[in-house]
Each structure stands twice: as structure tokens, then as C-alpha cells.
Amino acid sequence: MIEKEFKELKSKAKHIRKLTIDTIGHLGFGHIGGSMSIVEILTMLYYKHMRIDPMDPKKKDRDILILSKGHGGPTLYCVLADKGYFSLDLLHTLNTGGTSLPSHVDMNRTPGIDMTAGSLGQGLSAAVGMALANRLDKNPGLVYAIIGDGESDEGQVWEAAMAAAHFKLDNLIAFTDRNKLQIDGFTKNIMDLGDLKAKWESFGWFTQQIDGHNFEAIDKSINRAKTETGRPAMIILETVKGKGVSFAENKESSHHMAFDYEMAKQAISCL
Amino acid sequence: MTTRMREVYSDTLIRLAEKDRNIVVLEADLMAAHATKSFMEKFPERTFNVGVAEANMVGIACGLSARGKIPFAGSFAPFVTRRAYDQFFVSANYAKLNVKLMGSDPGITAAYNGGTHMPFEDVGIMRNVPGLIIYEPADGVSLQKLLTESAYRKGNVYLRLHRGNAPGIYNQNDEIKLGKANVLKDGNDVTLIASGVVMVNEALKASEMLQKEGVSAAVIDMHTIKPLDEEIVLKYAAKTSRIVTCENHQVMNGLGSAVAEVLSEKQPILMKRIGVNDEFGEVGDIEYLKERFGLTAKRICESARSLLVTA
Ligand SMILES: Cc1ncc(C[n+]2csc(CCOP(=O)(O)OP(=O)(O)O)c2C)c(N)n1
Ligand SMILES: [Mg+2]
């Protein structure tokens, strides 16, 4: 039973990965690296853990996801389209004038997007605010947030980290997409994050560090995070930037790439 | 001749740094966008990439400045202005230091990065910083000259940098000075005052279009938005009695407002402001965005004509 479930999630992730490469490839350029590293976490959240209703995207007691690294939008759009929030046809309008699918996620343009992002470092604070509001309202909805490892250079991330622990927000589960790369290169060389797990622990978070492309590990860590009481949970996802796309995988240049539709099709056929 | 503006930025800083060991460069994970990797290769010990942390970058620049360094700190314009405003306001400006701030991708040139990255307000908020110099060069030659001058002029500066390609407007021997606008084309009926790569070129195009209709339109490159060259504004107000300002920015508190302030107090004449009207940015290519926000030669011409009719 469990095995079957993971098999289905894996094949769903492959589908989302293909769809995302197609979507970016159709435009010809985009944030391929940071889109590929979050395929598994988004698949796990949207196809298993989150209580959501694509027919009612603003349902009051839904679980919420804030994609604070807003440039990962393409992957989330593919998930939302596949879930039925909007037509798959829209994917090929990505980032063109007048689109409802901009490069960075925008809650006022796209059904299913819970928070606007793109200026890095702000999403976790918004997650703290949403978690506080849910607690005030006795709303059982959980708040999930995904931040980047480069994004974690922003001081505001750590201000939010301190606040979430201070307010004992056990309805908040955050993920760090630890793909080891930012725009200018490897995080270790640009701004060394040191022992990230120790940092989050010292800020008062229940912290786990797992393989962010492994469904069993992701599932287990989210289940465990849900049972934690009295403090927020951080799951550090060890990921690979550009995962699954040979010309992008773990490349310093993978943040934003230009590639034509032929290359996209080829990358898709390799999956 | 078109130039890659980001390379002019980095090359000019390299030339300055070769002569002055106090020149240092700060970046916030956007060296790739600003071509400053070439600076880093030459002066690794004088390059500080602080990661995605604009407020920290500006704060560090202030500290470097307080110890006699001349820091050039850059990021995308929205983040280096909005996000580090208080750091720049207090630690650099109120403290009267010498920080050279650079914000790239002005207005619609943020293009595919969309609304979060599209600064229509950076000049507006920076104009409220007492004594700050704000400039936006329209081509590579003026960038190189103004950037060089800004390095040697003590005080805080905000450079609004078009980092993409720009067609050439000036020659190497043209005189281009901070605070002194350049008349690109003389005219008698109306004056187009523009700043930045996008709008100076649109204004030049508009002037040609108007010429065909028998309207003589002067074009002024107001590369320095603060302090504004009041003298030239008043001179052309007297000469043409109609002014259209053209900016890749909100019409509020940018170039148009600055010109309006001078005119309304000293020499009230009819004017129109071309720019963004109280809206946020959005994604798209440059041509789409020009139309979307009315930043076109066509609209400049319409405004010019409407002034000619009413006058
Ligand atoms: C405040 C802010 N500064 C700079 C940028 C430009 N920028 C976009 S993505 C990025 C690097 C982000 O690295 P990371 O968080 O690791 O993203 P990922 O590797 O997941 O793509 C930068 C500097 C931005 N969007 N927001
Ligand atoms: Mg990263």
C-alpha cells in the first residue's frame, strides 16, 4: 500500500518535472535550477499532505503554502494546473505580457497562490503572520513555507525564525531548499551558511535535515513535524539545483538559463 | 554604437581602482548581473559579495566608508533602495559618509522579473534623502564619465543603472557633468526633458516624429535628477514655453515632479509628464511594457501636440 503510494508520487513528480521543463522551455528562458529542486517537496505537499480544494482555492480552513523563493513559480504553476486550479493551456503563457503566471508568484493573479513573493526574505515573516492569524481564529489550517538557502542570507529570515519560536507556532512547517547554490555560485563560496541545522535548532525550531528528493524521507519528516507541539518545524531539504536536467544539474549557471524548446524536449525525453 | 552598460560599470570601476586603492566593490549575489566578476578577478581582496543581504551590504559599505574606503555597492534597484533605505538614509547620508549606491534594472527594464523587481519608485524615495546625488545615464559614454566623477566627488550617490545594452548617444569628448543637463537637440516649440536609456531614446524618436509634422522639439538629457539643473529648465521654459518630461518611473516624485517643482515656483508654464501613473509593474518584454505603461515616443508626441493646441 505505502509502496504503491510512493510509486505514484514518484511518477507524479516525474510528470511535474517534465511539465515544468516544457513550460520554461516553451518561453525559452527562466529559473530552471530553483524550479527543479522543489519538484519533490511540492509534489508531496500538494498530492498528499495539504488539505486543499482546487475548486475552492480560498477555502478558509485550507492548508497554505508560501513559496518565499518566488522564482520557483513555474513548478508550482505546473502542480496547480495539474490539480485543476486552472487550465493547463495557461502554462504556455508563462511570463509573457498580460499573463496570469508571472515569473515570481503573485496571489492576485494566479488561483491557488497563497502569498505574493519575489523579493527574497519576506515569505517566512508572512508565514508567521498567517500562523498567528490561524491560531487566533482557531483555524486548523497549517502554514507551510519554502525558503531558499541563498535567500537565508537575508536578515529578515532570522527575525522571522526568532519570532516563530517565540510565539510557539506549531502550526508552521517551513522548508529550506538546500540546493547549495545561489546566483553567483555555491553558497559555501558566496556566503557560507555554516551549520544550518544547528542554526535553526538554536533559534528554537524542531529541525530535521533530509534528502529532499526522497519521498519516504520527506513524508516521514512532515509527519513527524506535524506531531511536534509548542514550536515551529524546519525541514532542511538536501537538494540538487537543476535536478534531472543534465545541462542545469548542480551547475553554477543554473539559476536562470536560456534554452530552446528542442533542448527542453530532449531534457524531457531523458527523464 | 551600442554598449553593454554593465561592462562599462565594471570596467570603469577597474580603471578607478587601478589608480585609487580605496575603491572597493560590494555586491549582493548579483555580480553575474553587473559584470563585476571582472572587477573581482583583478581585485579579489577589494570585492565583497555579501550574499542576498542588501541591508547588510549597505551597512557594511557605510563602515568601509567611515574608514576611508570608497565603496560602490550594487543590487537590483528595488532591493538596494526599498530594502536598504533606512541603512542608506541613516548610516550613509545622515552620517554624511561617502557611499556610492548602484541600483540596476530601472523601471520596465526589469521586464521578465515582473512587479516585485520593477522599480517605478526608487528615484522618488531617494529624492527625499537630503543632499543625495541621483543620476541615470543614457548611454555608455555618459555612464563612464558620470561614474568616474561620482567616485571623486565626496558624498553619497545613487546611480540608477540600465545594465543591458544601450545605443550610443555621446562622443568621448563631449562634456558630461553631474548636475548639468545635456541638450541633445535644440528646438523652439516644445522641450522634451528625459532621463535614462529607455526614455532619452524615446524622446529622441519623438522629436524626429514631431519634426516631420513641422514641430521643433528640443531634447534634453537630464541625467542628473538631483540636484536638478534648474538653469536649463528655466532657459527652455522661456524658450519653448512647453515642456514634456519623460521618465521610466512613476510620474510622482521623479523627474517630472522635480521639473514641475521648479516651474511652478519660478516660471509657471504648461507641462506634461510622461511616466507611470500610480501603478505597479508586471512581467513582459520591453516592447509590451512600453505600450502597457505608455512609455513610448507616440505618447510623448501626443502630449507635445496637446500642449501646442492649448497654448
Ligand atoms: C531581496 C532580493 N534580492 C535579490 C534578489 C535577486 N535574486 C533572485 S534569486 C536569487 C538567489 C537566490 O538563491 P536561493 O535562495 O538559493 O534560490 P534557489 O537556489 O533555490 O534558486 C537572487 C539574489 C531577489 N529576488 N530579492
Ligand atoms: Mg539555492
Describe this structure in a few short sentences.
Chain A is an alpha/beta fold and 271 residues long. Chain A is built from ten helices and seven strands.
Q: Can you tell me about this structure?
A:
- The complex is a heterodimer of chains A (271) and B (311).
- Chain A has helices at residues 2-27, 32-36, 39-49, 73-83, 123-136, 155-166, 187-190, 196-202, 215-227, 261-269; strands at 29-30, 64-67, 143-148, 172-178, 206-211, 233-238, 257-258.
- Chain A is 41% helix and 12% strand.
- In chain A, the strands form two sheets. In chain A, strands 2-3-4-6-5 form a five-stranded parallel sheet, sandwiched between helices. Chain A has a two-stranded antiparallel sheet with strand order 1-7.
- Chain A is globular.
- With 311 residues, chain B is α/β, with parallel strands linked by helices.
- Chain B has two domains: 3-166, Thiamin diphosphate (ThDP)-binding fold, Pyr/PP domains (Rossmann fold); 182-308, 3-Layer(aba) Sandwich (Rossmann fold), CATH 3.40.50.
- Chain B has helices spanning 5-19, 31-34, 37-42, 54-66, 77-81, 85-94, 122-127, 140-152, 196-212, 230-240, 255-266, 286-293, 297-310, and strands at residues 2-4, 23-27, 47-49, 70-76, 100-104, 133-135, 157-161, 165-167, 182-185, 190-194, 217-221, 224-226, 242-250, 270-276.
- Chain B has a seven-stranded mixed sheet, sandwiched between helices. In chain B, strands 9-11-10-13-14 form a five-stranded mixed sheet, sandwiched between helices. A two-stranded antiparallel sheet of chain B has the order 1-8.
- Chain B starts with a strand and ends with a helix.
- Bound molecules: thiamine diphosphate and magnesium ion.
- Thiamine diphosphate sits between chains A (33-34, 37, 69, 71, 118-121, 148-151, 177, 179, 181-183, 241, 255) and B (29-30, 52, 54, 76, 79, 83).
